[in-house]
């Protein structure tokens, strides 16, 4: 039994660097993102947050479009996470394809997704796009709002990194031409 556990730990330990390297490979910093979208026309920059979250946290007009990767199901409460359940937007791929077409791009274009912190929707949305034929999908590593401070007066606040904290352009109101809506 000990040898089996040793093998399992070895496999897990070997897999961690691979996962980390993979995430770094498709991850891109906020500053690199800003540079790419300013210098190239073949990039689709997508905010993948739920529009309601954008209303409360802020928005950057630097994105081409807001297409949520995970949607909030306001009819079902997740007791363990103390929030509403989230589900993947069933039109995500179709909406990405439409946004690419609107810019005259195809599935070979660079697509950069951004969520609040980069972890729950940023990386998963880029991976999902890659699995669905968009080989150049990437994500903003620390997202729009960045990581939480762990200690001190600002403990719990997201003031460490991310689009807002890196001094990049943003505002408190979403652009109505870019925000995801179901009424049009």
From TrEMBL:
PROSITE patterns reported for this sequence: RHODANESE_3 (PS50206)
InterPro entries registered for this protein in UniProt: Rhodanese-like_dom, Rhodanese-like_dom_sf
Domain Rhodanese: 39-156
SUPFAM superfamilies according to UniProt: Rhodanese/Cell cycle control phosphatase (SSF52821)
SMART domains, A to Z: RHOD (SM00450)
Full protein name: Sulfurtransferase
């Amino acid at each position: 039994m000990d040898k089996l556990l040793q093998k399992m730990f070895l496999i897990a330990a070997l897999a961690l660097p691979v996962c980390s390297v993979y995430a770094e490979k498709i991850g891109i910093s906020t500053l690199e993102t800003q540079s790419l979208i300013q210098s190239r026309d073949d990039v689709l920059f997508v905010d993948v947050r739920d529009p309601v979250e954008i209303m409360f946290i802020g928005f950057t007009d630097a994105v081409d479009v807001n297409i949520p990767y995970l949607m909030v199901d306001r009819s079902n409460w997740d007791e363990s996470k103390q929030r509403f359940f989230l589900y993947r937007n069933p039109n995500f791929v179709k909406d990405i394809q439409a946004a690419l077409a609107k810019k005259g791009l195809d599935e070979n274009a660079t697509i950069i997704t951004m969520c609040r912190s980069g972890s729950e929707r940023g990386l998963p949305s880029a991976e999902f796009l890659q699995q669905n034929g968009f080989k150049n999908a990437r994500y903003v590593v620390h997202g729009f709002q960045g990581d939480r401070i762990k200690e001190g007066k600002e403990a719990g606040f997201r003031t460490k990194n991310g689009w807002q904290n890196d001094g990049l352009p943003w505002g408190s109101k979403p652009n109505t031409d870019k925000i995801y809506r179901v009424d049009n």
